[in-house]
Specification:
This protein has 257 residues and is α/β, with parallel strands linked by helices. The protein contains twelve helices and eight strands. The chain has an eight-stranded mixed β-sheet, sandwiched between helices.
Length: 257
Amino acid sequence: MVEVFAVASGKGGTGKTTSTLALGMALADEYDVTVIDADTGMANLLFHAGLDDAEPTLHDLLIEGTDVPVQQAVYERFGMSVVPCGTSLAGFQAADPGRLRNVVADLAADTDVLLLDSPAALDSKSAVLPVVLADRVVVVLQPTIPSLSDGLKVQEYARSYGTGTAGVLFNKVREGDDLDRVADRTEKYFDGPVLAGVPDSDAARAARRAGEPLLAHAPDDDAAAAFREAAAALTVRDGESGDVADRFRSAVVPESP
């Protein structure tokens, strides 16, 4: 079985990478999970996972003419398989985003859940491709009406390529935020449910500085508990890895929206 989720937001600063790793660790209690940093232009998952010195990375897999096997860029961390992306401008410029199709297809053969940490803005081929390749998208938002608008743009684009919505995850919820009111509107406009409301957390920031996912750094924090709640609400569908791999390899690389 395998299902691919793109974790997306439509805007930076929502805590998308923290959310991706937290969901991955929580799901890894039940499934084989592979996390890919598909934000090839503004990658930072490697810092969150203590892989800032990793070689090779996804960039090496996306550069035409390189002969790096996919498995050499896969690192076992925190109960998950993690594929970090490099941070160099040269690597980003040399990378061919279309090659992500084959990378994901190869990884789909040996995992249950693939999480694609997607770019924040849908403004280029490399940014939209994770959403196009995924079965469903998890939309990470802050509990505000403008953030809902950003998330709806992600859903609209996902729909246009046949990608469903697995759910909405509210992150960085602060005291005074009217989460109930925003969640009510969310249920009206989004195809998937509200997975959880994750409180703003000093522990999440400390985890980032320590180079660890939140669930490894502070497993008893309220935010960690909320991420586990979100993962429990995320039903993983049973897909055939061979079918998924074939779909990825034949996927059309979209132009910029």
